[in-house]
Task: structure prediction
Amino acid sequence: GAVVSQHPSRVICKSGTSVKIECRSLDFQATTMFWYRQFPKQSLMLMATSNEGSKATYEQGVEKDKFLINHASLTLSTLTVTSAHPEDSSFYICSARDHRQGDTGELFFGEGSRLTVL
Amino acid sequence: GQNIDQPTEMTATEGAIVQINCTYQTSGFNGLFWYQQHAGEAPTFLSYNVLDGLEEKGRFSSFLSRSKGYSYLLLKELQMKDSASYLCAVMDSNYQLIWGAGTKLIIKP
Result:
């Protein structure tokens, strides 16, 4: 099946620093990628939809200046958590859909990135 | 508003059968997904239903009734490795995925 690779899997940073998380579709092109955040024992919460070549669409309540998303190519999207604070500590997961399958295709998830802000 | 309901937690015995239910109320419907998520890991795809009926895939089956806004995931011959959270997600008319909170399944020997 299709593979989505996410890096890093774990990151620990100091408060006030910025962290970049990469999401790559390895064997398919993804015009759209999705970024989720998941707190312990809670469901996935969509943060933003990343569109190749255009600005990301952010969900209500998600600060676009804090969570910078760049989707520069059909296989790479990045999420940068700027000026991270301890409350940003969470499990961040990206997902992508093979563009050939249109809007209803299966979502493939990255391995997730666990961010801990000290 | 849009809503996905599924039980918070279920317990079953190794070798048995368990059914996880999901009811939904969404603005439009473009399919229902079931994902499995082990603790600390990303979700993995299990099934996709867009038409009414039962889809069988090995030990796992998924059922959909669009008129009732209802789906279930049936797991047979339970194994310890099936202990995980099972997420129900519905794609609405805007092709947005609406996620349920997940059902934590505990398998006991």
Observations:
- The radius of gyration of chain B is 13 Å.
- Chain B has a mean pLDDT of 93.
